[in-house]
Each structure stands twice: as C-alpha cells, then as structure tokens.
Design goal:
Length: about 475
C-alpha cells in the first residue's frame, strides 16, 4: 500500500478517528490517533514499519528505540525486518533486579534512532531523549508516523534533533477528504483546529530553559567534582532527591535503616561519631549497601576548626572519614582555610565537600550576609565543593547544589531549636536540589514506606518547578 492507501486503511481500522475527543491536556480535539491498535493487524504494522524504515535510508546508526507503548511493536518489526539491534526505554524503572532504564545491549557513545507514533508538543519526546542520553546514547534522528503539527517537530529541531515523519496531520486530512472518509464540515473543523492549536515553541523553550536552569541534568553537566556528577546521575536515574539522615545510635540500627530506605534515597547522611559501636566493619557493610541500592554516603561531620585540626579530624582514626565518605560537611566560620586544609590532605578526589552556609535552627547566627559569603567561598572552591547546606539562598552556579535539612511534612519544630519546612516549599519555592530528612523517616513505624512517601513528594515538588514555570 502507498501512503494514501495506508491512511485510508488506518481510518477503516479505527486508528485515525474523527469526532470530538478530549485529550490528556484537557484540550478538545476533532481527531484522535490511536496507533496502539495496529498490533492487531500484522500487515498494517509491517507496512507502517517499512515506511518508517525508508526514512532511515540515509542514516547511519547502531540501534532502534521505540517509545512505549505504541512504537514498541513498530520498532520491533523494523528491527526484525532489517536485522537491526533494538533497545527499549522503560516507562517506569524496574524495582528489582538490574536497575536499568534502558534494556538491550549497547555501549556508551552508540548512536540510536528513536521512534514514536505521534509527535505532539514534543516535550515528552525531549524528556525521553534526555533519559537515553543520560545512558550515554547519542541521538540525532527521531522518527514518527504522524506529526500533529502542534509545534513539536520545531521544538525538537530547535533542541538539535532532526525529525522525520511519514505523515503530517494535514496530509492525512487531505487523504481523508479525497477518499471520502470525512465530510466538508469535519474537514474544515479539523483544519481550523490544526492551524489554531500550534504551540509557541519559542515560549516553551524559554520556559523550559528557565525551569531547568537548576535541573539535575544541568547540575550533572556543570558540577566539577566526580562525586557531584555521580549524585546528579543517581538523582535522575532513581528519581529521588531525598537524603535520609540516619541519626540512630548503633551500627545495627544504621545498617537496618540503610537497607530499608536505600531504594528511595540518593544519599544517606550519617553522624558516625554518635554511633556507640562505630567500627570499620560497620562502614564496610554500609558501603556494600550503598552499592546495592546506589546511594552516596554523606558524613555530616561539620568540620569547623583551624586547618591543622581539621586535617586530623578528616583523616585520623578511629573514624578515618576520608577513607569512606563520599561527601562531608564543612563550616566556613574559620574562613576558607578549613577547605584549603581538607584539600591539603590530598584526599578530596573521592570525597566532595558540602559547605554549611545557613542553618535551620530558629535563632541561627547564619545571617544573610554570612550565608552569601559562605556561598561565595563554596564557589571559589567549586573543584571540591558539591553543594551548600542552606535554607533560603543558593549558588547561581548550577554545579553547586543546594541541600536543605529541616524538612518534615508533619511538624514545624522539634522543641529544641530545629525548624521545619514542607518539601513543597523547599523545592518549588526555594529552589532546593536535595532535601535531608531525619526523624521524619527513621522515627516512623515503617521507615521504608515513609522514605518512599518522602521520595515521591520530593520528586513531585521538584517537577512543579517545571510545570509552574
Ligand atoms: P531531623 O531529624 O530531620 O530534624 O534531622 C536533621 C538532620 O540534619 C540532623 O542530622 C542535623 O544534624 C542536620 N542538620 C540540620 O538539621 N540543620 C542544619 O542546619 C544542618 C544540619 Br547544617
């Protein structure tokens, strides 16, 4: 079948529908495209797959990737018919087994052509492409059966992707009219709808850029220290900006907590000097758990003394923090000499610093002036600083994250000076990147469940930054 015959057939099979439909966005549309139906019709599936394959004639690439669900059957068909490797990007990440976002066999740097059934606004496609790029795949070309002509193809072009489509919705409309599938009124209504429902892609791009100026992707790109880059990657792949503060009193309690909350956190914060039975064995087991669940270990030691002492505190037994912590906190009340002393130990290749710029207590002495100065110092040492602990202010350098303790969904204070904010306030209003939750999780009846709840609230609150931008 040629393009026109195929379009008419798609109409007969209910893939192309004309009438009145309410889209996910709430928008009323005079047409609807449902390519999930084509799995029932192998001939049509094959025909569409071949038309899409023709679009790749001039392209060189290693893998095909179909966006679930509609394009999965299509990309599989193309892969089988033309002996091409296929990879699959998960819609939701698996909770057990290999924690992969992308299934299949591929290497970093491999090129990939991505296929979706319909390009609408292009925003969900961009998010899919960014997730694939995070895995090291290189994408230049995107295929789709239909361009809804809403501006998505332009947006994708603007982001540097080349879009190839079999049909534009305008073409389909013409075929339907010529083939007598729709009447004059349907034709006119649909045409008017297409022409008046284009997104202003420049506006979308500007909004997205503003909203993503401190996105985890940007943080990962701009951060200088490898631990910071790793953290940004964990946050994105696990979709969690939750750091659990494991302020318990024994090694056994800490390990139990770490195993329970591990799947839901990007970092576990410790105060190992508070563990009654601290030993190298505990650290060894904690390290195993951090690998099992893919989180970083952050020792909240808050170094604050003169350089000479700070160096000893960081490296000396029995804690030997420098040997195992992915990140440690440092005050700059003594000035930048604390950071310089930590650097001088030569141990900051595998441990990043977090500068305490502002505290969460109700009468903290960390005034605005102090906080901004501390952020300044952090910026001057961006090669070793992962972020700042602060409540209201952040570095304008996206490579320096803002980590915020004093987060609780149920309490405003603890009666001992601590003050709390809700995650929503932290992420969507204050621009926080990582929230730190202690008693809100480890004192709960079920810390595993509680950490999952915090994880979800934190992630949704972070996404609000995009939606409300
Ligand atoms: P909470 O149980 O969620 O209140 O625990 C907060 C943790 O964060 C705790 O380990 C503190 O040491 C840490 N913290 C804080 O609460 N406020 C601050 O300003 C700084 C650290 Br810095």
């Amino acid at each position: 079948m040629n393009k026109k015959e195929l379009a008419l057939k798609l109409f007969d099979l209910g893939v192309l529908q004309f009438g009145e439909f309410t889209l996910k966005s709430g928008l009323k549309s005079p047409f609807y495209l449902d390519f999930r139906r084509i799995v029932a019709y192998p001939d049509v599936l094959k025909n569409i797959s071949e038309l899409l394959w023709e679009l790749t004639a001039e392209l060189e690439f290693d893998h095909l990737c179909g966006v679930p669900y509609a394009a999965l059957s299509i990309s599989s068909t193309m892969a089988v018919l033309h002996s091409k490797s296929m990879i699959v990007k998960r819609k939701e990440k698996k909770r057990h087994g290999t924690k992969k976002m992308v299934e299949g066999i591929y290497n970093e740097g491999d090129s990939c052509v991505v296929i979706d059934d319909v390009i609408s606004s292009g925003i969900s496609m961009i998010e899919t492409l960014e997730a694939l790029e995070l895995e090291g795949l290189k994408i230049k070309h995107v295929l789709s059966i239909v361009d809804r002509m809403q501006g998505g193809a332009l947006l994708l072009n603007d982001y540097g992707y080349k879009v190839h489509t079999v049909y534009t919705v305008r073409e389909i409309l013409e075929f339907m009219k010529e083939g007598g599938k729709i009447n004059q009124k349907q034709y006119t209504n649909t045409l008017v709808f297409i022409e008046t429902n284009r997104i202003n892609f420049e506006q979308v791009r500007a909004r997205r850029e503003q909203a993503t100026s401190y996105s985890y992707k940007k943080i990962g790109k701009e951060a200088e220290h490898p631990v910071a880059k790793k953290l940004a990657k964990i946050v994105q792949s696990k979709k969690t900006n939750l750091c659990c503060s494991g302020d318990v009193q024994s090694g056994a309690e800490l390990l139990k907590l770490a195993d329970a909350v591990g799947p839901n956190i990007c970092m576990l914060k410790t105060h190992t000097d508070n563990l009654s039975d601290m030993s190298p064995q505990i650290i060894q087991e904690l390290k195993i758990l951090s690998e099992k669940h893919n989180f970083l270990i952050f020792e909240d030691r808050k170094f604050a003394d003169i350089g000479h002492i700070v160096m000893q505190q960081f490296t000396a037994a029995p804690l030997c923090i420098a040997d195992w912590a992915d990140a440690v906190t440092v005050h700059v009340v003594a000035g930048s000499s604390s950071i310089e002393a930590l650097k001088a130990t030569g141990k900051l290749d595998s441990t990043a610093l977090i500068v305490v710029a502002e505290m969460s207590t109700k009468d903290t002495l960390t005034s605005k002036k102090y906080t901004l100065k501390a952020i300044d110092i952090a910026e001057q040492h961006s090669d070793v600083v992962l972020g700042t602990v602060s409540q209201n202010y952040r570095s304008e350098n996206p490579g320096i994250m803002m980590l915020t303790p004093g987060i609780n969904t149920d309490r405003k204070k603890d009666g001992m000076g601590q003050t709390y904010n809700h995650p929503d306030e932290a992420f969507s209003k204050r621009g926080v990147d990582i929230m730190i939750v202690g008693r809100g999780i480890y004192q709960a009846d079920n810390p595993a469940l509680q950490s999952e709840i915090y994880k979800k609230i934190g992630w949704e609150s972070y996404l609000k930054r995009y939606n409300e931008a």
